[in-house]
From TrEMBL:
It comes from the Bacteria. It comes from Rhodococcoides yunnanense. The keyword Transmembrane does not apply. Signal peptide: none annotated. Keywords: Hydrolase. GO terms for molecular function: hydrolase activity. This is Alpha/beta hydrolase. Residues 23-257 form the AB hydrolase-1 domain.
């Protein structure tokens, strides 16, 4: 694991592949870490990529400020822009899952000059997802857990009790590896991670369309993301777009379907 300084913060970054390989930045979601990309990375490296997977703000111990105001989306995307700058990368292919997908959508929409292609897993474009939360009863039910996570200190207190029993139950004991639990049960870590939810605003719904070639991978076994927002996603991409539906896979696509996801990432990279 390398350490990369971005402004006042130090980020843990897993890097793999040749230094002159095609740069791919992979962004993890909640409640995971960059370890979620371990099964995807070998296939990308075999395809000639240099994989750069940071532990994002709140997940890297050296980038864990206290206070919801430090976790606004413009700060999260700013971290990735700073990472690109620190690594002397004018642009990169971008991959994201869950909250990492949210950051990736915003970065691609607002800074298309820094993003060559986008492959997003699970969470659709923010305008599509916010529409679903507002209009679709199914998605409203699926997103009820947001309420707890928008109270970071309460979330940390409640979710880490009894060896993180509720955290495991919320996200599936089999998929939520002990490594992630250990990472988040460090005092302050879950409060920081939950602050991403607390910092969400209605402005997410106003994100402009993405204008870089994009693939969106959704799984019909996902308990967190329903079909309505997933199918609406393409309305917010003004570029070559591919929607991939995986059958029977849960929310944890990078770990449960690494081969399929890797193939889609490589195909999207090769399309440009």
């Amino acid at each position: 694991m390398s350490e990369v300084s971005v402004g006042a913060y130090v980020f843990e970054v897993a890097m793999a592949g040749p230094s002159d390989g095609v740069p791919v930045v992979a962004l993890h979601g909640f409640p995971q870490t960059n370890a979620s990309w371990r099964s995807v990375t070998p296939g990308l490296v075999a395809a000639g990529c240099r994989v750069i997977a940071p532990n994002q703000r709140g997940y890297s111990p050296g980038a864990r400020p206290l206070g919801v105001e430090h976790y606004r989306i413009e700060q999260l995307t700013g971290d990735i822009l700073g990472l690109l700058d620190a690594l002397d990368l004018p642009s990169a292919h971008l991959v994201g899952h869950d909250w990492g997908a949210v950051v990736a959508w915003h970065l691609a929409a607002e800074h298309p000059d820094r993003v060559r292609t986008l492959t997003a897993a699970s969470v659709p474009h923010s305008a599509a997802f916010n529409w679903a939360i507002r209009e679709d009863p199914d998605q409203q039910e699926r997103s009820q857990y947001f309420g707890l996570l928008r109270e970071p200190e309460k979330a940390e207190r409640v979710l880490v009790e009894n060896d993180a029993q509720r955290l495991r139950a919320m996200f599936g004991a089999e998929s939520l590896d002990d490594e992630y639990v250990r990472h988040l049960t460090v005092p302050g870590a879950l409060t920081a991670a939950s602050s991403w939810y607390a910092a969400m605003t209605r402005e997410f719904a106003n994100l402009p369309p993405v204008t870089v070639p994009t693939t969106y991978v959704w799984s019909n076994g996902d308990t967190a993301i329903g079909r309505a927002g997933a199918e609406r996603c393409g309305e917010f991409v003004d570029a070559p777009y591919r929607f991939v539906e995986l059958d029977g896979i849960s929310h944890w696509i990078p770990e449960e379907a690494p081969g399929e996801l890797t193939a889609e990432i490589v195909a999207r990279i090769d399309s440009v």
